[in-house]
Specification:
Elements (H helix, E strand, L loop, with lengths): L4 E5 L2 H13 L4 E5 L1 H12 L5 E5 L4 H4 L5 E5 L4 E6 L1 E2 L8 E2 L6 E5 L14 E7 L25 H9 L7 H16 L1
Parallel strand pairs: 1-9, 2-8, 3-5, 8-9
Antiparallel strand pairs: 2-4, 4-5, 6-7
Helix pairs in contact: 1-2
Length: about 190
């Protein structure tokens, strides 16, 4: 597979909006990114009205030692899937990158070039993100206008979060996902 074009995004929100815009016109699209970018991209996608999560397999590298790329995909029904791009040999497949045959592949410039062999029949776009431009690095800032992220929390909530031990996923992501689930249950 060859790279068809190159893009540069200023923020993870720009990447998320690009993916949603492609999904709106009926294209299945996925980004090939590492953990930190996947975490930020999932946060931005969750803040976009109409998106839902189908399956999310996003693991902190400190927990399971997985340090390779993830596929973050969105289809034309605005369902988001996140899964490791690399899989060890098991009864279902050989060791290597999972085959991906969606319509448009956005491949981060730091991704292993071997992943291109797993991308079939796609428009392949290499991209970069200006990490310094993201205002929400480490989830310290709230996104603008998102009812899930901008919900006010009390000081008691913050103290309770510090007492919880998060096994297998990043604490900030776990708190964010918990807030998302709470908001969904309220509806």
């Amino acid at each position: 597979m060859m790279i068809d074009m190159e893009l540069s995004f200023e923020t993870h929100l720009d990447l998320a909006m690009c993916m949603v815009n492609m999904a709106e016109i009926g294209k299945d699209v996925y980004a090939v990114v590492f953990y930190e970018d996947a975490k930020r991209l999932v946060k931005e996608l969750a803040c976009i009205e109409g998106t839902t999560f189908d399956c999310v397999e996003l693991y902190s590298p400190s927990w399971n030692k997985y340090t390779k790329e993830y596929y973050v995909s969105i289809n034309d029904d605005f369902e988001i899937d996140v899964e490791p791009a690399w899989h060890e040999k098991n009864e279902w497949h050989d060791e290597g990158y999972l085959r991906a045959d969606l319509g448009i592949a956005l491949v981060h410039s730091d991704a292993n070039s071997k992943i291109l062999d797993a991308i079939e029949g796609c428009t392949c776009i290499e991209f970069t993100i200006d990490a310094d431009a993201d205002c929400d690095e480490d989830f310290d800032d709230e996104c603008e206008g998102c009812p899930l992220c901008c919900a006010e929390s009390s000081e008691d909530d913050d103290e309770d979060e510090d007492d919880i031990e998060y096994i297998g996923i990043d604490k900030d992501l776990a708190v964010f996902v918990s807030d998302v689930l709470d908001a969904l249950l309220e509806d």
